[in-house]
Amino acid sequence: MRVLFFSSQTYDQDSFTSAAARHGLDLHFQPARLTEDTAALANGHEVVCAFINDDLNADVLKRLADGGTRLIALRSAGYNHVDLAAAKRLGLAVVRVPAYSPHAVAEHAVALILALNRRLHRAYNRTREGNFSLHGLTGFDLHGKTVGVVGTGQIGATFARIMAGFGCKLLAYDPYPNPELLALGATYLELPELLRQAQIISLHCPLTEQTRHLINPQSLAQLQPGAMLINTGRGALIDTPALIEALKDGQLGYLGLDVYEEEAQLFFEDRSDLPLQDDVLARLLTFPNVIVTAHQAFLTREALAAIATTTLDNITRWAAGNPQNLVEG
Ligand code: NAD
Fold this sequence. Notes:
Blueprint (H helix, E strand, L loop, with lengths): L1 E4 L4 H11 L5 E4 L17 E4 L7 H9 L4 E4 L9 H6 L3 E3 L6 H17 L1 H9 L17 E5 L3 H12 L3 E5 L5 H5 L3 E2 L2 H7 L2 E4 L13 H5 L5 E5 L8 H9 L3 E6 L21 H6 L5 E3 L8 H19 L10
Parallel strand pairs: 1-2, 1-3, 3-4, 4-5, 6-7, 6-9, 7-8, 9-10, 10-11, 11-12
Keywords: NAD, Oxidoreductase
EC number: 1.1.1.28
Protein name: 2-hydroxyacid dehydrogenase
């Protein structure tokens, strides 16, 4: 069976090729992002393997179905980029990787917290230039601080366990409280109250119509002045331009983003020789208390291996008429 990978990088080829031996699938790797313009590349491929910034709108899905594709195998947990109603109408099955390594993403969120707090990004640049001054590098003890976890599923719970290890007090917001968080001593609150009480807020909920722009000018105004906000969930959880005002007036003291609302046109490519056209991102990158990583939280060896194994299992199980990890609208 022919499988075409869109948006594939060398690390995808490495992890999938190592995992593919026992699956007998014919894998083809394409660096192009899936859009209306590139969908025709999939002609004759029964399976398309897509990533988070591939565009799976109704028009793209129609082109894929017309070209003979029958299965969309997402190599991600999130599926907010797929028009599931259109897929169903077109008879396209959609499968995903519901869990690979919650540790990968949770640990990256913690890496952003530690780097922002102890200003590692600034210290790294200083010492390389022979500047050994500590001016402006004062951090705070994480021990005893209050951390708000928004979305307490697999990643949020893993993140909460790590922060509990630092001696932080945990607050949580999720329509479905997780007993594991309660066992860690977390208190579930409504979101505005969590925002008022937490010094660090980390977003781990999926992007849905309810969570789009969960963080907006009104919710930013509820934060404690100087609070830290971390987003490793999805870019559109935050109304990004609103962050600029909150950073300028100090309401937001630290910002760590691994995801960005408009990342699809930017992330995963080396654009260092091009002028950055995105003025919001360009402004965010000027703040010394902001760190942006380009959607790399998932990028550990363990996560890549698990993504490859589950995706290939999803494809072979679907081909055998016994599908798993189906996403239904
Ligand atoms: P999960 O399904 O285990 O947990 C999601 C949690 O969010 C659930 O407990 C759910 O009840 C909760 N939730 C749903 N609606 C909510 C709302 N309105 N407010 C608050 N909570 C709400 O998912 P997970 O594996 O923990 O992943 C969480 C998200 O992380 C994914 O949806 C994805 O967008 C993101 N993610 C990012 C990366 C990355 O590399 N940056 C990698 C994987 C996943």
